[in-house]
Amino acid sequence: MNNMLDDVEEILLMGPGPSCIHDSVYDALSRKTLGHMDPYFIHIMDEIKRLLQIVMQTQNKMTIPVSGTGSAGMETCFVNLVERNDPILILINGVFGQRMQEVATRLGADVDSLEFEWGTPVLPDKVAEKLRSKDYKIVAVVHAETSTGVKNPVEKIGEFIRETNALYLVDTVTSLGGIEVATDSWGIDALYSGTQKCLSCPPGLAPVSFSDRALDVILNRQNKIPNWYLDVSMLTKYWEGQTRVYHHTAPINMLYALYQSLLLIAEEGLTEVFQRHYENHKKLVEGLERIGIQMLVAPEYRLPMLNSVVIPEGADDAEVRGRLRQDYKIEIGPGLGPLAGKIWRIGLMGHTAREENVDRVLSALKEILNR
Questions:
Q1: Which of 56, 109, 129, 243 is the most exposed place for a label (fewest CB within 10 A)?
Q2: Do 159 and 231 reside in the same domain of the chain?
């Protein structure tokens, strides 16, 4: 029987995720599987926590990878912190802010939203004004809005939230490992991410972190956490302490891969990693401008790792992406929602953020558009 895996091509992943994977991470995936309660595997779990704390810039004890993709991280934060009728404020300027709103609504929260035009940032002054109108239990925002390429001013928003009693919940799925995420100094109480973006690990794990203040809220709920699998009060017993308590069978080899991915970031250095993302972003923007392609987002709010570019007049969205994939073995992403058919999303995430990859996509786009 023909094995379809024999025909999987090597594609340069320059879309909104997943990103390219370092060979050492693939090697980590192939290591011998240990039991999820094995003493040596528990040592690896502890090291993953330590490395995540470095990348997240936090001392939070409850900093772990949840078994599931980035959306499982979102669910983890909301199901643990939200109870029915809790007043929640969601700041929305793209698809993933809308997804937060959907998750909170399904939990029966009293959800308010503050919406901003796609391609523009959340405005902190508007947030401050909204916070004066009502006492919220949680204020939630996406740091790096993957659907638009906008970096929201999370640090500034946090300054206003600290003047209230609200918990600060932040989506760092696309930002973690590509730009600074200063969890503790920005006053973030809960955050979640995904492994497949700037961490350059295959999709399947969702790093999360909870402050002591957030954990107090979780441990003093009026009702049980509605999702058993994502119950942080139970997961804590598996990830912490001298005696570990079985909760679920962790994806062992995926955790090996995350460990290796985090190790690569630590060895390169956070500052150097952030600079590499920025320099390659700058090179991409300059190259796109030379071939007549403009950026969607104003310079001060652009993400270095997710570049939203305006499709040139006369270019067919699907045809160009199809030719990139078929003829040049390069993947870029389409626009979503109101930006569908109007932009391409070019990712420079993690291991993908290399000069040779920028040169390759620029050369390919130039050839296709000139034809």
A1: 243
A2: yes
